[in-house]
TrEMBL record:
Pfam families: CobA_CobO_BtuR (PF02572). It comes from the Bacteria. The lineage of its organism: Bacteria, Bacillati, Bacillota, Clostridia, Eubacteriales. Coiled coil: none annotated. This is Cob(I)yrinic acid a,c-diamide adenosyltransferase. GO terms for molecular function: ATP binding; corrinoid adenosyltransferase activity. SUPFAM superfamilies: P-loop containing nucleoside triphosphate hydrolases. GO terms for biological process: cobalamin biosynthetic process.
Amino acid sequence: MERHCIHLYYGDGKGKTTAAIGLAIRACGNGMRVGILSFLKDGNSSENRILDTIPGIERFPCLPAVKFSFQMTSDEQTKAAAYYHALLKRAEARHDLDFFLLDEVLDVCQAGLLSEEALLHFLHQQKNRAEIVLTGHIPSERLLAAADYITEMHSHRHPYREGLTARRGIEW
């Protein structure tokens, strides 16, 4: 029996999503069926135009008009939390997928918009049948313990600190 693993890409450095998407493309290129769930993103990032053309990769619908969690009203937070819990349940039911990328899921848990218990349940349900990649900034001890691969990306220098904003095709 083939072993499936949980990958965790986290930290304050650039490249978590980029690395995760690269792994998703590699998995798809080897015949795996890939599901990508993006949390705290609206789906308009540049890589999605390419991902949408690749047979074998399915992007789950994003929550439209996403704000940073700290900018959301309590009503927006309630609606986002309901959406993200339903999104994870929808993915959990997809036994036709061999690989899941849960982009920024650590941040949505940290913001309280998805319970860590729901995520751990998903990991437990899927671990024996699918490869799973989680990204975000700060993992909990329980998520670190659940992971097979742990990669921390640390920023030593970033132009944002000098006032350069996110650039199309590079950061989004």
